[in-house]
Amino acid sequence: MTSPGPAPAGSLAPTDDPESASVPAPASPPTVSVDHDRLLSGVTGLFARYGVPSARAALAAAALCHGDLTGPDSHGVANLSRLYVPLLASGRADPGAVPEVTDDSGPCAAVDARRALGLWAAAEAMDDAVHRARRYGIGLVAVRDGTHFGCAGFHAARAAAHGMIGLVASNCGGQRIARPPHGALAMLGTNPLAVAAPALADHPFVLDMSTTVVPTGRVRAAARRGDRLPEGWLEDAAGRPVTDPGAFDRGSAYLRWLGGGPDTGAYKGFGLALVVELLAAVLPGAAVGPAPAALAGDGRPHGRDDDIGFLMLAVAPHRLRPRGDFAGAAAEMFRSLLDCPPLDPRTPVRYPGWWEAERARERRRDGVPLAAGVHEELTDLGLDLPVLAEGTV
């Protein structure tokens, strides 16, 4: 979700020279596999020990483990000790918070999350939007004073599970990470956006994206692995490519927008980030990235991901297409995509969400892969996670 995601990882040796891209990447660290249900139970128990009510602790655990189950492990349990435990331990997230509906017009509601753990608060907000859409055809829930909620796609997919279209937008609260095109100061977050809908059986369409080229979690995950980054993810103050992931947390590299640079379409990612800021923060009254406080920055990332805003939208197709077969038409559309002849048979055409569903099925059956270091961190937190298998990624 929001950029602050994983806490800063250890830095690599400074190698901001673009020529560093030619340096061979070190071997990836070993991984181990653990049982998915055991992982889910352990994370649930940890949240409960910090005071999160049991049902909400289980929901938060499902949201967090979703990253490891479906693939984007940058938003998975690696963030437990780096992000969520510190949020709860410091009081920046209130484990016992009860969100308050401050305005309710039927199809729309405004909610003050009261610093509730975003992993479950966002899921409950989408469930509320689904409930409203079932009655009115559309349900919109705008939330302020939220905290980091993990994978936006997890929450959007809750609408798809009910045969609806779900949309999720979230800003990064008061944290600024990315600079506007031609700008010298960091003023916006990665501002993720997700859309989900029914598609083919057990394979919903789930688009989950940051409006920057990648979220910060993927940069920090690469730093933890000792990997170099592809050119195009980060740039220095002069716009030159940076391949050292540690440069981001040192403040000497910046995330690029979707579209690349100003001459290749950066306005697309930047514009989408502003759309998210309007829908997710300005609308519910959460902290806004491009605010006067942002002008006091020195160009590097600054601020904190407090008072995050997010918007949950659910659309019930049967209310808008009562005599049509939305599910059948959607299935036909996505099936046609899968039938598109590939350029290379080894890389068939698939839609967003397909491979994630495949990984989830396999990992529920065979175990969830975790970096050995992450497994050790979880063990240190008191989780009992016997190793099923070891290997490398």
H/E element string? EHHHEEHEHEEEHEEHEHEHHHEHE
Q: Could you list the spans in which at least 5 consecutive residues all have pLDDT below 50?
A: 1-26
Can you summarize the main beta sheet? 7 strands, mixed
**Strand segment tally:** 13
Q: How confident is the prediction overall: mean pLDDT? A: 90
- Rg, nearest Å: 21 Å
Order of strands, main sheet, comes to 2-3-4-11-5-6-7
User: End-to-end distance, in Å?
Assistant: 24 Å
Anisotropy-based shape: globular
Helix content range? 25-40%
Number of helices: 12
What is the strand content? 15-25%
Structural class: alpha+beta
Describe this structure in words.
With 393 residues, this protein is an alpha+beta fold. The chain is 36% helix and 17% strand. The protein is built from twelve helices and 13 strands. The strands form three sheets. A seven-stranded mixed sheet has the order 2-3-4-11-5-6-7, sandwiched between helices. A hairpin with a 2-residue loop joins β6 and β7. α2 crosses α4 (118-136) and α4 runs parallel beside α5. The longest helix has 19 residues, at 118-136. It is globular, with a radius of gyration of 21 Å. It starts with 29 loop residues before the first strand and ends with a strand.
